Amino acid sequence: MTEKDVILSLDIGTTNIKLAAINKNGETVSLQKRTLRLQCPEPGHQEICPSELWTDIEALFRLSTKGLESRIAAVGISTHRSTFITWERGTDQFLHNFITWADKRTQKMCDDWNNSYVTRICQTILYGIGKIVGSTHMVCAANFKVVPANVQMRFKWVMENIPSAQALYNQGNLCFGTLDTWLIYKLTGKATWATDYSNAAATGIYDMWAGKWCPVMTWVFGNPIGSLPQVVDSNALFGYISPELDLGCSDIPIHGVVADQQASVIGNCLFEEGDVKLSLGTGLACDRLTASYAHPVALSVYPQIAWKLKGAGIYYMAESMTMETRGKYLDWLVSSNLVTDLKQIDTIALSVKSSDTPHFVKIDAIDDRSIEEFMEEKGSNCTNAHYVRAVMEAHAFRSKVILDDVFDFYGLPDKIIVDGGASSSAFILETLSALTGLHVYRSNCTEGALMGAFFVSGLGLNWWQTFGDIELPQQVTLISPLDCDRVRLLEKFERWKTFVKF
Fold first, then answer.
1. pLDDT tens digits, residue range 230-268?
2. What is the CA radius of gyration of the chain?
3. Which H or E element spans position 455?
4. Is the distance from CB of 256 to CB of 233 less than 8 angstroms?
5. What is the DSSP string of 59-89?
6. DSSP assignment letter at 375
7. Could you report the per-residue pLDDT of 135-181, keeping only the tens digit for each?
């Protein structure tokens, strides 16, 4: 009998859908991917058509399972966080497209709520009481800010703007789900409606201290709590692939579900309290594992659930993140005709001196204005190379700001693991090493989220009992600091912060 030694690991990121077949030794047997098709029907709106997404997922499964049918032991899932959809219970009739985490339709609603007198007064009182009685939970609630990337305000928009949503809820037939929940529902033939702790916590309406959907938060924002899915362990059995589906496999257990940032931490073999990872992807994110301690919400650092395994308590992490599309700046260098090939950027950046470089100060979404309009302290002899270096330095500077937010609270770590598309730039990582004075390692695990879902699913299969049992080596490369005057580099960093108002 053929050994079932392969896990299908599915990752839906912000830009791509990937499905890998990974064997018990951690070796990728096959990897298939497609571009995630995004829609922008109105300015500020970003959506995903569920029908298109399902068509792509079906195609990836059929390609990935070919020749491996008898070896597949389980399916693991990693998805980007807080993108959601609603549908009618017992069917797959969705009410609207997925509304992604990057959607900005509720920006004004968030600003109005954060700045209202009622919110400010209530949070001030709550903060004072929390400090007096020593309640971290109350202090967190007092520091809470609503942002479009979290679910609550976008879900409120759905309930107020899509009449069928309220009607279905009144009938007890409204289902809410983030990407992982919808995938599980579809893959199991509508048998399972659930999410894991890491995805639930990222919505902003889950009480990670009480371990349940927050009745106060859902009431405040008009998010019907009865429409929210069950929350289960990350390595739980989420059901079986329905035999009614044409995926090339059936009756395969779904044994691991985890959010993408958390999956990437796991995939890079970071399992211990104090481990730090910096992601230089579509956005920038610094994650520090904090074990059983849930970080109190601050203006720039907030708690997340890293994972929750069967028979164990919740494992937390502290996260600092910017939703700016920093990774797109590198592609923008090409579209602006500053470079012809991204492989050239390090060489071009090093061809001029930092002291001659202006400051790249555009920190929100890039647009079609000329590169010169994004610069401060421009010299009269600035060339394209100066502008390229300025953009690259700004990437490193913004990364240091995010790291400092975490380090100011927890102190300096022994090392930083860096992954994401922009980590391919030696210049950015060398500059970051020089700025921080820390050991910076580039992750050589190019598919961290896929590996993370694989590891969690393997735990569900009892291939390992704990993360500590995983004996695969950490794949990293130590980066040497940039050869520069560190004092002058830090001075330039401080001037940059002044320009961008950090």
1. 999 999 999 999 999 999 999 999 999 999 999 999 999
2. 23
3. helix 448-460
4. no
5. HHHHHHHTTTGGGEEEEEEEE-SS-EEEEET
6. E
7. 766 777 777 788 899 999 999 999 999 999 999 999 999 999 999 99
